[in-house]
Design brief:
Order of helices and strands: HHH
Largest sheet: none
Number of helices: 3
Helix content: 55-70%
Length: 63
Amino acid sequence: MVRFRLNRSGDRRLNSALYMVAITRLSHHQRSQEYMAKRLGGLAPMEYRTKTATAEQPVTALC
């Protein structure tokens, strides 16, 4: 499997096209769905994001 990293500072159209390909593939391709389920540990994407966002994070002072 070849991974392509989205260019964080590059072409917005290209990033948008790659994102749409990934989302469409996840919704229609069985192997992609299995891969994502394995990566997320069986959690739904929103559950995974909530879990990672609420993890203990150090609080830093702004001053």
